[in-house]
Design brief:
Layout (H helix, E strand, L loop, with lengths): L4 H22 L12 H16 L3 H20 L8 H9 L4
Length: 98
């Protein structure tokens, strides 16, 4: 398994969990009706693309891991799909944002 694959799977998992669990918990969607199914193939394509970049050499590994890390931070704070960002949902659940 490529070194960036774990980060990419975390990106897909956080996005899916956000749309299936966290958004309905805050009242901004229904679990299966509003789920963006394009997340699943997009995660696979991103994992394959970054694994291919890693095959270019040591600098490719560094680049792919960096790109995956940027994606992980981005998915936490930016709205992707049909639900608010996980940080927004967390703030709403904790009572900081109404």
């Amino acid at each position: 398994m490529a070194e960036s694959t774990g980060l990419v799977l975390a990106i897909g998992g956080i996005t899916a969990a956000n749309e299936l669990l966290f958004a309905p918990l805050t009242g901004t969607g229904t679990p299966w009706k509003d789920f963006n199914w394009r997340v699943v193939p997009a995660t696979g394509v991103l994992a394959l693309a970054l694994a291919g970049i890693e095959q270019l050499g040591p600098s490719g590994v560094t680049f792919a891991k960096g790109l995956a890390a940027i994606g992980l931070v981005t998915v936490l704070f930016v709205r992707i799909g049909n639900a608010p960002a996980p940080a927004e949902n967390l703030a709403k659940v904790l009572g900081y944002n109404k």
